[in-house]
Amino acid sequence: MYSAARGGFSAILRQAAVAQRSHLSSANTKKIPRRRGEYLYGVAPCLAALHTGKRQIYNIFLKSAVGTRTSELKSTALSEVRRYAERRRMEIHYVSKETLERMSSKRPHQGIVLDVSPLSCRKMDLGDCRLEKDILSERLPVWLALDGIQDPMNFGAILRAAFFLGADRVITTARNW
């Protein structure tokens, strides 16, 4: 039995907590690169960005693994991110959960944030607004206008539903997610 006079078990716990905090603080004192683009976060959106190649990847930030448990699916995804970084000789920045929460504005980041170039949006041309084809077919056109969609997964679900339901056009603003 541990005695309070010698510190015992509680002293061991305190030492472990101090060691963990010092490890986390050393991970946080490492200079975090300045943001060059916009932050993209969450496992699925980040993997999509890595696979499609439509965005330039400036920096990869992963949660430092001190005392964390990850699901098998998330572990596989994070391994994929590490392989991507190795192939391109990119450094992975391991940061605290708090740093990732700041980067993602406290949105669900799932332990990963990418600093990426913005998606390019096609400017709308007034020629795209012609309705002659729709008027001649005696069918009213269905256009879907989206503004301020914040979650890329919701955006994808909306686009799939629009396609399935036969929407003719989808218009978005540049400020979606």
UniProtKB/TrEMBL annotation:
Methyltransferase among keywords: yes
Domain annotation RNA 2-O ribose methyltransferase substrate binding: ranges: 39-122
Transmembrane intervals: none
Keywords of the record: Methyltransferase, Transferase
Pfam families hit by this protein: SpoU_sub_bind
UniProt KW Kinase keyword: no
Annotated InterPro entries: Alpha/beta_knot_MTases, MRM1, Ribosomal_eL30-like_sf, SpoU_subst-bd, tRNA_m1G_MTases_N
Origin superkingdom: Eukaryota
SUPFAM superfamilies hit by this protein: alpha/beta knot, L30e-like
GO CC annotation: mitochondrion
Gene Ontology MF terms: rRNA (guanine) methyltransferase activity
PANTHER family: RRNA METHYLTRANSFERASE 1, MITOCHONDRIAL
Protein name listed in UniProt: rRNA methyltransferase 1, mitochondrial
Originating organism: Geodia barretti
Organismal lineage: Eukaryota, Metazoa, Porifera, Demospongiae, Heteroscleromorpha
